Amino acid sequence: MVTIKEIAKICEVSVATVSNIINDKGGVSDETRARVLKVIQEMNYTPNSVAKNLKTKNSRSIGVIAEDMTVFALPDIIDGITEYCEKEDYQILLVNLRLYKKFEDTYYRDDSYGTIVHRGIRKLLSMQVEGIIYVAAHERLINVIPERMAVPTVVAYGFTNRPEIPSIVVDDTKGAEQLVRYLISQGHKKIGVIAGKKDSLHTQSRLEGYQRALFSGNILYDPNLVVYGEWDRASGYRNTDILIEKNVSAIFCMNDFMAGGTYDRLYELGYQIGKDIAVAGFDNREMAEFEKPPLTTMGLPLHDMGYRASEVIIRLLEKEKMDAEDGIYYVDCNFFERESVNKFDTQTSHIDISYAP
Amino acid sequence: MVTIKEIAKICEVSVATVSNIINDKGGVSDETRARVLKVIQEMNYTPNSVAKNLKTKNSRSIGVIAEDMTVFALPDIIDGITEYCEKEDYQILLVNLRLYKKFEDTYYRDDSYGTIVHRGIRKLLSMQVEGIIYVAAHERLINVIPERMAVPTVVAYGFTNRPEIPSIVVDDTKGAEQLVRYLISQGHKKIGVIAGKKDSLHTQSRLEGYQRALFSGNILYDPNLVVYGEWDRASGYRNTDILIEKNVSAIFCMNDFMAGGTYDRLYELGYQIGKDIAVAGFDNREMAEFEKPPLTTMGLPLHDMGYRASEVIIRLLEKEKMDAEDGIYYVDCNFFERESVNKFDTQTSHIDISYAP
DNA sequence: TTGTAAGCGTTATCAT
DNA sequence: ATGATAACGCTTACAA
Q: Is residue B35 scored above 90 in pLDDT?
């Protein structure tokens, strides 16, 4: 690798001059600048940013800790991170914890993986990253970030409860509210819910969104219309019957997988989705588009959360104040209107197989 | 950040001694070692690897250039890369080119994106990566890698035609052969193929695998039984009729999307997949598992390719010779036997709606 | 306008 | 067994 010293020697100037030219400090004659630039070009010289970093103490790099790259949310989040970082000319050091691969679905119950996280952080810090973005594999409370981090840190797709460590999360409540408002706008009043696991943050927020939409639509909230699933297709299938018995005209499933199960069951029961009954999902997983009929769903703002996370951390690096007082940034979902929601006409009753109360 | 100098001062030894202790050079009394180690612990000192890198000229980091993180193949490939790199204690610098986002599906027709790639490479090189892994978004000939790369380079999920730049690719031929052999083992002889685009490398290799399987099964290769699609669901749907007219007992779709289209059409036609007729896919996309019935398919060895890519490049760094003579490493697919392939009994004829020749 | 030299945090050589 | 010191490639006062 050619160094600044060699360029200087060839040009018969000092390294300081070369350095000044590279970094656009003034005070260099046009003649020498041209000569030096030409040689730099010819020699294909690129400054060694390790040396530069050592001297100037800014690495223009940020560390990204991914709980598990292969979980569906991560690639888009990281994509968003990289987009903004590229604009601001920051490099990314990636640490993939592979938590799902290592512990399957259980790692987040205790904090036993804390030491793995700490190791990742140390590594990144030793490489002089200026900030760290921790990307959770699913949204929950992240409490493995050490006290007194040496560099600004933000958590994407997870909460921290610590104002000094901003979190970037999905605005589940608003997303669900918007989705259910849409259902209501199509004439639905009796809207069943297949919720996720009861202790999930997503479940709680989305339920609140549902309740808000009902309220603003002047519809009584009937707790009997919400049942809890396990986020998987089977539980969507299983819970559909309960809601059908209650004679709902629309079913809001809190994720697309469960909506898939609802599709399956509804199909067996002889319903035509998008005609006899409405189904809506959440997340906008790849399959949503390929269901028959294509599933209307509320897409997670994965890319936008990553983008926002970069914005927040880079603003932190540049010492500007944050705008979210409590350090929580809610990012809006994206609505995908497809074909699974029919207009509901109160006059026309739909197929009714209710067991009658 | 605490430095080695401060540790030295506190311990009243020289920095050289501290350095020797950290790096396990001998010649230090147990007494001082213990004392220094204790202080290092207490002060939570981590060596600055930028400085270390500058001095020793090995960064233990490799650059990963991803054509587009959000394309389905990439996360698993990168996961494989990170797994091996973690074992070997190499760090990853990630550059996400975002080619699909920037150019949609056309960028790979010309090499106009070459300058974007070069910029990424320069950046990585300036950060002193010891090697570069280029990860293509879909398998094809990659000819944007500059001549005379300053560090070892390998391409994952793409060909280079340059022995000095090894490529890691899917063994499509073997995968297809294995899949079709399986079909044959289930009694199928008249096996239709919905191929991908005719000019695709995947199509050509998978077709060869099909032919090899037929040959070893002593079955005549009938070119009329292969039709070409566009890799999308619609073309699977459309081409199904052609094959059905030919009275095939099994359909091998060269990807899962087209298999989905075949499912749709077969369903309309009144066939029971996995009973009246067999369907097999390729790729093992997420949806394959959720089709009804679950689709038997040949999974792409994404993770394994990434893992192998790291192995190859790290071996290159350590100057060991490669084992693939021409620099191409074929990685085996993984078979997923599910429920879409029935045993075919020659005695029993299946539903026949052929238009009769 | 250009050059000299110190220093960033390490490791490595050579003394002591 | 330990320490002084040069060097890695760069930036930056400051001097010329």
A: yes
Rounded CA separation B20/A168 (Å): 43
Per-residue flag: A52 CB under 7 A of strand D: yes
Distance CA B329, CA B309 (A): 9
* Cβ <8 Å between A50 and B48: no
pLDDT above 50 for B211 = yes
Measured in whole angstroms, the distance separating CA A47 from the mean position of its chain's CA atoms is 35
Could you give the CA distance from residue A92 to residue B323 in angstroms, rounded to a whole number? 32
- Sequence ranges of the domains in chain B: 4-47, 57-165+302-333, 172-296
Q: Output the pTM of the full model.
A: 0.94
Ranges in chain A, pLDDT < 50: 349-357
Find out whether the peptide bond into B293 is cis, omega within 30 degrees of 0: yes
Contact A45, A76 (CB under 8 A): no
The residues near B252 (Cβ < 8 Å, ≥ 6 apart) are: B176, B179, B180, B183, B191, B192, B193, B194, B210, B280, B282
CB neighbourhood size of A329 (10 A): 20
Q: Which of A1, A93, A290 sits opposite B150 (nearest CB)?
A: A1
| Å between CA of A96 and C1' of C9 | 28
* Domain made up of B4-47: CATH architecture: Orthogonal Bundle (1.10)
Model confidence over B272-281: pLDDT tens digits? 999 999 999 9
A-B C-beta contacts closer than 8 Å? 127
Strand C: which nucleotides have any atom within 7 A of a protein Cβ?
Answer: 1-5, 7-13
Residue B352 pLDDT greater than 50, yes or no = no
Helices B4-11, B15-22: axis angle to 10 degrees equals: 110
Spatial distance between the Cα atoms of A13 and A16, rounded to a whole number of angstroms: 8
What confidence score (pLDDT) does residue A319 get? 80
State the Cα–Cα distance between residues A225 and A242, nearest whole angstrom.
9
Interatomic separation, CA of residue A11 and C1' of nucleotide D8, rounded (Å): 22
Minimal CA separation from B268 to chain A, in Å: 13
Q: Which residue is nearest to nucleotide C12 (CA to C1')?
A: B16
Is the CATH code 3.40.50.2300 the one for domain A57-165+302-333?
yes
Average pLDDT estimate for B254-262: 97
CB-CB: which of A64, A69, A287 is closest to B75? Answer: A69
Query: What are A47's two structure tokens?
Result: 């400054």
A131 near A317, Cβ under 8 Å? yes
Q: Is A141 helix (H, G, I), strand (E, B) or coil?
A: strand
B350: pLDDT strictly greater than 60? no
Closest nucleotide to the alpha carbon of B29, via C1':
D1
For B254, left (φ over 0), alpha (ψ -120 to 50), or beta? alpha
The answer to whether A83 contacts B92, with C-beta atoms less than 8 Å apart, is no
Q: In angstroms, what separates the C-alpha of A306 from chain B's closest C-alpha?
A: 13
Residues 56-95, chain A: which have Cβ under 7 A from strand C? 57
Q: Per-residue pLDDT averaged across B116-138, rounded?
A: 97
What gap in Å lies between CA B238 and CA A219, rounded to an integer?
A: 46
Q: Percentage of chain B with pLDDT > 90?
A: 88
**Which amino acid residue lies closest to nucleotide D7, measuring CA to C1'?**
B55
CA A45 to chain centre: 39
**CATH code of the domain occupying B172-296:** 3.40.50.2300
Rounded to the nearest 10 degrees, how much is the dihedral formed by the CA atoms of B121, B325, B76, B84? Answer: -80
Same topology between domain A4-47 and domain A57-165+302-333:
no
CA of B44, C1' of D3: distance in angstroms: 25
**Across chain B, what does the average pLDDT equal?**
94
Query: Which nucleotide is nearest, taking the CA of residue A20 and each C1'?
Result: D11
pLDDT of residue A290: 87
Mind listing the pLDDT tens digit for each residue in A264-303? Answer: 999 999 999 999 999 999 999 999 998 989 999 999 999 9
Q: Quick check: A78 and B96 CB within 8 A?
A: yes
